[in-house]
Amino acid sequence: MSASRFRANVKPMRIAAVIGLLVCAGSSGAGLFDDEEARRAILDVRQRIDAVKLESEKKIAEEVARSAEDTAQLRRSLIELQNQLEVVRAELAKFRGQDEQLTRDLSEMQRRQKDTTQSLDERLRKLEPTRVTVDGREFVVDVVEKRDYESALAVFRKSEFGAAQLVFVDFLNRYPSTGYRPSALFWLGNAQYATKEYKDALASFRALVALAPDHVRVPESVLAIANCQLEMKESKAARRTLEELIANYPNSEAAVAAKDRLARFK
Predict the structure, then answer these.
(1) Local structure of 131: helix, strand or coil
(2) How many of the other CB atoms lie within 10 Å of CB of 203?
(3) What is the distance between the alpha carbons of residues 170 and 153, in angstroms, rounded to a whole number?
(4) CA-angle at 165, arms to 183 and 167, nearest 5°
(5) pLDDT digits (tens, 9 = 90+) for 11-54
(6) Which of 125, 221, 248, 257 is the most exposed place for a label (fewest CB within 10 A)?
(7) What is the value of pTM for the model shown?
(8) Which residues, including other chains, have CB under 8 Å from residue 185's CB and lie 6 or more apart?
(9) Would you identify the CATH topology of the domain 130-265?
């Protein structure tokens, strides 16, 4: 019960008690009580009223104190709850930040994985065998083999014939079964001819003819064989070679050149 309600109930009780006592005192008459007795009765009533008042005020004070303590406890509870909420908010913010960081890290990891995969695919594609067409022939080679052949040919085209011989010999040794072999022999023979190593050039051109008699470079190689023989003063052998060239490859440009050479013999 609140203090205000308690006071409201006590006050009517006190008034009723006083009135009751006064009525009783008045109705009994002078025969029952004299003035002294009446005064003592009034004093007794007053003492009782004061006692009731003190008791009521004490109870009110206790109620107020309890109410204040309850309010203080409630306030402390609210403050504690507020602090707990702040801690929860801080933890949620921390987790949210961690989640965002994890999301960024995952995105970065996926990007790097994609870049790595693309890079690896590109490297694998570069290492995969590739189909090439050289001197009318189509065949499959790996990337390193193709690179080495083109590097050797680039040396020849710079007219570095001594160096070209070395790189072509090295290429043929490292790739004995290469589809470039007939073409490599042709350019090796030309490099040897350019440095007047006619015997070695003759061997290279003959190796080409024996390896691939239907190769597009064969007529030129046969003509080169005849030129080597002429340079080596083997005129009869050169004549026979030119005649075989005309007979075997009559429609080639090399055959036209061979007819011109034969005309000079006469």
Answers:
(1) strand
(2) 17
(3) 13
(4) 80
(5) 455 555 545 544 444 544 444 456 888 888 888 888 888 887 78
(6) 125
(7) 0.55
(8) 172, 204, 205, 207, 208, 211
(9) 1.25.40
